[in-house]
Amino acid sequence: MAEHSNIPRMRKKRVYIETYGCQMNAADSEVVLSLLAQDGYEVTNTLVDADVVLANTCSVRENAEQRIYGRLGEFKRLKNSRPDVLIGLIGCMAERLRTKLTAEKAKGVGQIVDMIVGPDEYRRMPELVHRAWHGEKGIAVQLSRVETYDDIVPLRTSGISAWISVMRGCDKFCSFCVVPFTRGRERSRTLASVVREVEILSSRGFKEVTLLGQNVNSYRDENRDFADLLRSVAEVDSSIRIRFTTSHPQDMSDKLIETIADHTNICKFIHLPVQSGSDRILELMNRTYDRARYLGLLYRIRTRIPDVSLSTDIITGFPSETEDDHQKTMELMEHVRYDGAFTFKYSPRENTPAFKMLDDVPDAIKTLRINEIIDQQQKISLQKNQEMVNHTYEVLVESESKKSPVEWQGRTDGNKMVVFPKGNFKAGDYITVKILRANSATLFGSTEKSHSQIELPIEEAA
Ligand code: 5AD
Ligand code: SF4
Predict the structure, then answer these.
(1) Are the C-beta atoms of residues 31 and 66 closer than 8 Å to each other?
(2) For residue range 33-53, what is the model confidence (pLDDT) as tens digits?
(3) Which domains does the chain have, with CATH numbers?
(4) Pocket of ligand 2 (CB under 6 A)
(5) Is the C-beta atom of 313 inside 6 A of ligand 1?
(6) Most Cβ neighbours (<10 Å): which of 123, 130, 134, 298?
(7) pTM here?
C-alpha cells in the first residue's frame, strides 16, 4: 500500500473498470488503474467484488452512449444492494455531458454516479475517490493543452501487446465528430519518453506495441514528426512489432511511407479512414481531401509498400447523402479493395458543425446502405483472405483461440487473424504458418517453425 494511502481499512479496496469505445480509452484505463494502484487499490475483473466501479465512456455515436446508460442502470442495482460502492463515470461522456449530468444530480445518472471525470483530469482520480468515500460527489472535467500523462507507467495486463498513447486530442474538426470537444486540443508526448517506454516493454518481453493517437500523424516533439518517432521506436528492438493508429489522410507524408517501408518490424498495415467516396460529402464533412487526392495517396503507399494491408472507416447516411453519393462510396471501396472496413451510420452529435445540418437520411435508408457496404466488404475480405491460402506468413502467437482450447490465435503483419494448432508454441513466439482455409474474418493454418525474431530479408540478415 502506498505510504500516503487514502484507504482507511486493512483490506485493499478493489477497483473495477469497464472500457468503451476506441483504443485511446483502453490506454487511458491503464493510466487510471496505474494511478489508483499507486494509491493502494487492487484491480479486480469482477464487478461484484468491486469497491469502486468505473465506466470509461465513449461519446462518438449515440448508440455508444445508450449502451452506457443501460449499464449505469445495472450499476444502480449494485449500489442499491451495496450502498458503499462508489461509481465513477469517466472519459468522453463525462466531458460531453458534464452540465447535463450535474444538473441531473438530484435524479437519474447524477444520483448513481459519485465521480464524473473527463479525459484530462485522471491525475485527480485518487483525490476524487478519497473525497467520494467521505460522501462528497466530485466532478473534474477541465480540458488541458499540455496533459499527456507522460510520466505515468500504465498498468498493463497483457504481456505481449501494449498500447502506447503518443498524442492526445484532435484539431481536425471533422464536421460530424465530437472528439475535438471531448478530448480537446492536440498535444504530444516527448519522443524520449515514448522510446523509454518501449525500452522498458522490450526488457519485459513485450512483442508488439501500437502507438496511439486520435490523429497520430500530427505527432510533434519540437522538430521531430511522427515518422521520426516511428523510426526511433522501431530501432529499439527488432523483435517488437510496431503498429500505429489512427492516421488522417491529410498528414500521411511520403517520409512516413518511406519509414514504414524501410523497417521490417513496422507492420505493413495502415488504417486510413476515408469516411465517404463522394467529394461533395467529403467537403461537407470537412475532411480536407477529395477522392482523387485520397486515391493518389493510396497509389503512393501501394507503390512503395506493395504488400501493405489497408483498412478504413466509412460513415453512411451523412446529411444530404444521396443514392449517387452512396454509390460513389461503393465504387471507391470496390476500386481500393480494403482488407477491412469499419462502417457506421451517421449519428448527429450536439455542438458539432454537422449537428446544424438536417439529419435527412431516414434510418431505414441508412440501414440499407450500411448493409450494402458491409456485404461488399465481406466479399472483398473473403476474396483477399482466400488469395492467402497455400501461402505462408509470419504470425505472432497472441492468445488461446476464442473457439478452441487446443488452438492459438495470432495476427500476421497485415493484421489478419490466424487460428492454428497449439503445438509447443507459446504466446509471444513468432511462427511461420501455412494458410489452409479462410473465411472473411479469419484464416486457419498449420504451423511449420518458430523463431524469436522478425525475420529479415536475406540481404539485410547477411
Ligand atoms: N456518426 C457516425 N460515425 C462517426 N464517427 C465519428 N463520429 C461519428 C458520427 N457522428 C466514426 C468515424 C471515425 C470513427 C472512429 O467513428 O468513421 O473515423
Ligand atoms: Fe474526429 Fe476527424 Fe479528429 Fe478523427 S480526425 S478524431 S474523425 S475530428
Answers:
(1) no
(2) 999 999 999 999 999 999 999
(3) 14-140 (3.40.50.12160), 161-384 (3.80.30.20), 392-460 (2.40.50.140)
(4) 170, 172-174, 177, 179-180, 214-215, 248
(5) yes
(6) 298
(7) 0.93
